[in-house]
């Protein structure tokens, strides 16, 4: 393999790890690079290989964020198993729903999220204190099931949707929601990864090699989130809305 392309691929995996740790969406960087570096690879294998590298990076970021910031331990038995099952179900049903139908819906949802965050500066503020109740917990379970299924069936913006859901449901800061999101996101990635593995759509050698760079980027990203706090996560949400809306709009216009 061309050493320059190899360096670009590993650099891209590192950047993707940083992006995933901050807000999510690293696949937008790494998947095109894998396809460009290996034109002969099947798209499903590129997706599965990216998922293998991504789950390693996201897991490492989750560990760092939980250790430094802390998280309600009940998330591990309330939300993690549900996210795993829901994302696996979504990945299994991915072929049943056209992405051409999904994209316009997600574009509209992202724009709604962006406008809401921009017009509500108090939403997710650093001073917000998490609220807990049975109703909030139930709503959290519904949100995790829905977003987990979405991650398996389509995926773009999963991290952002989880952050918004947790912030709204538990009336907490963006930073606390980001920590919860990383833990749940590991599980949604694992659910989809199992489906890819069962279908033989993972290039394990490449995926594990890229995982090293992804973990490095994820560790830098986790520290960026901790250093920037809720205000940084808020800016990251707005930036992701703009980027993802543009990318999905481009895909909708050029791939249909």
Automatic annotation (TrEMBL):
Keywords, sorted A to Z: Cell membrane, Membrane, Transmembrane, Transmembrane helix, Transport
Q: Which InterPro entries match?
A: TM_pro_TauE-like (IPR002781), TSUP (IPR052017)
Q: How does it sit in the membrane?
A: Multi-pass membrane protein
Please verify whether the record's keywords include Metal-binding. no
Q: Where are the transmembrane segments?
A: 7-35, 75-95, 101-119, 139-170, 190-213, 225-250
Location in or out of the cell: Cell membrane
A Pfam family hit: TauE
Q: Which Gene Ontology cellular component annotation is one that this UniProt entry carries?
A: plasma membrane
What broad class describes the main subcellular location of this protein? membrane
Family as reported in the entry's similarity comment: Belongs to the 4-toluene sulfonate uptake permease (TSUP) (TC 2.A.102) family.
Query: Under what name is this protein listed?
Result: Probable membrane transporter protein
